[in-house]
Each structure stands twice: as C-alpha cells, then as structure tokens.
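Hi there,

I know you've been waiting on this one. I reran it after we fixed the sequence typo, so this is the corrected version. Both the input and the resulting structure follow.
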Amino acid sequence: MRKKQPFVWDDSCESAFVKLQQLLTSSPILAFPTEIEPFILDTDASLTGIGAVLSQVQNDEEVVIAYASKSLNKSQRRYCTTNRELLAVVTFVRHFRHFLLGRHFTIRSDHASLVWLRNFKEPEGVVAQWISILDTFDYELQYRKGENHVNADSLSRVSHRKCKRLDCPDCISPVSDKKEVNDAVTYVNLRSDQSKETLSYWVQSWSHDDIRQMQSNDSVIGPFIELKEKFKKKPDRSVVKRMSENIRLMYSMWETFEIQEGILYRKFVTEKGNTHLQLVAPLTIRNEILTQLRDNKTEGHLGRDKTISTIRQRFYWPGLSKDVKIWCKHCNVCAKNKPGPGRGKAPMGHVYSNRPLDRIAIDILGPLPVTENGNEYIMVLGDYFSKWKEAYPIKNHTAQTVADKLISEFICRFGVPSNIHSDQNFM
C-alpha cells in the first residue's frame, strides 16, 4: 500500500487559485442585476462566520449578483445553530436591502428549522426583533441540502484575520505539522532562545529543568508521565484501575497529551477549531498561576468563567474549574467590593394623599393615528386624592409640549400640585 504524500502548496496551486478568483468575479458567472427576474439569496453560518450569495436566474441560468461574508464576534459564536443561521439571514437581507426591498425574493438555507420561521410561537428577545425586521420584506424561505449549498457555505468559512500576533488565541490557525504547532504557541511552550533558562511570557522564576522536576515529583503528573513514556499507545484500563481519580481522568484523555523535552503538555482545541498546547501545571505552582492571572494588578479580579478562559490559554491541570471556583469564592478583595443584597435600593412603602392636588400622575398615550389637527398623542392627568382624570391631545411628547399643556390646561385652572409623578423626566 502506497503511503499518502502530504499536500504541498506550490506555485501551480497559487496560480490556479488566482485564476479561480478571477473567474468567480467576472462574466459570465458574475452579472448585473435586472429589474424583472426575482432575486435568490443563499445564506449559511459556521462557527466563526456567516456568508451569502445574491443571485438571479437570467436566461434560464442562475448567475451571481454579489458575494458577502462576515466574521462573528465572541458573543455571536456562542449562539445555537438556529440563531446563527437566522443571524445570517437577517444580516444579509439588510445588507442587500437596496436590491430586495419592495420585491419578492427567495431565501435558501441548509438549516431546515428556518423554514418554520414564521410559525414561531411567541418569539422573545433578539429573535423577535429579527423576525420583525424580516416582516418588512416580501420573501419565501426554502430549505436546500448542504451538498447543494456550498456557495454560501464556503463564504461562511472565510478566515477574517484581525491581527498578526503569533500568541493571539483568536488568530492561531489549526496546523498539522508538529513544528508549526510549537511555533504558534510560544507563549505556552519554551522559546528556542530560552530553552535552557526560563519559561516564556510572564513565568520567569522557573527554568526548564525546574518545571520538569516539579512535574516528575507531582503525585498525579509524575506517574502519568511514566505511563506515557512506557506505553506508546493507550494501555488497557486495568493499568490505571488502582490509581488516583485524577490520573484516571487524564487517562481518559490520553491522546490529547504529549511529552516534549521531558515536559508534559496537553493539546487544546478551542471552539473555533484552533489548536494550542497547554502546560500541565504541577500542584506546587498552581497558586502562583492563579495569583498572576487573576489577582495581579495588570489582570484584574475577573470572574470564574473569564479566569478559567484566561488560564486555559496557557495551562491545564485536573480539576482546574473547581480550583478556580474555590479561589474566586474565597477572594477577600472581591468579597469587600461586591455589594450586599438589596444595597442601594430604597425600601418600598405606601404613599398617601391627604388633599386634592397633593399628588398628581401624568402619562403619555401613543403614538396614535394622526388627527386632522395633527395630534398624535394623548396626555393623561389624574389626581391621586379625588381620582379626577383629564386628557389632552398633543402633537408630540417633547418636554416643552408636555410642560406647556400642563401649565396652560391644568395648572392655570386648578392650581399648582405639590408633587407630580411620571415615568419620564419631563420636568
């Protein structure tokens, strides 16, 4: 059996890629829009971005009008699949609104749940807002199989690189070559020019030999390193049956650990598919790591989730999440600065009115259909003591209009009230 040769990107591949770009962005694939044929909008979403292709059927052939893609921010990457696909639809319908507004068009997606978009029962939050935006357009939503939806799918996976830092966890690309992985995670691993001195980044007090020695002496990491060196492949579970719980936990993730120059690392894959190495921290340095990456003045007292995310960019140890939770819970600085329950809130109580005009309430009703006199709102006034109500038509609800109507229509007739209650700052 012949060994498969690794793929190598050479000049021929580069020229073919440039040629493909030119064909996709020129006639006959790319065409001008017409006023007769309906538009077709293909949208798709991946874990890191969204993409779309706007097209028309001209002369019985589907041609591209425009391409579009956009990267997702950190909060959008946490959306469920349905919300990411819906976000792609809303984003690109608004992006191409100058083509689509006032015309019937078709939206195609490879996510079948979106076909029932208009049947959502009592949508809430941002989903309700998105649906209200789409309701201003005349569209039909169709499902298309993923194998036929590669045009928008490929655009949703375009890399939008934001910076050129090698140590940026958002920009590290997944690579297969072992040497390139090491180069991409120099902020975790040992720098080539410091391999005999100190660890890179902020860890300056431990040398390469110190880390290796501390790992060997650790009651969990040391025995696991011996297992990794003894067995090239994952051994039978009976080998770790009588060992500690943390060793059995690391055994279950056997393939993710590797030893480089006598030091144990763990390969960590982020939500975006990027891979970097984490130093498996021995027990003797974990308090120092938590101090430097959370309690240090340059880091700030972050919460549990942000602290875990920060530490996972560089380190790993069994029970990391539990240790961070306990550390944050027993932090004196956070306990002193955290407001107590109910602090800053006025106590609730009853308010009584003893005479007419002791306290009146004011509110605005509208907007309503505009009358012949141009009035669009109604200002409602009520006296707490007598329960007397009055309503006045007004053209707008600006502070000047409300104050003028209040003085001319109410105060000039009944007098000045002692207190005025409103949910707006009119006065």
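Quick highlight: The chain has three domains: 22-156, 178-337, 360-421.

Best,
R. S.
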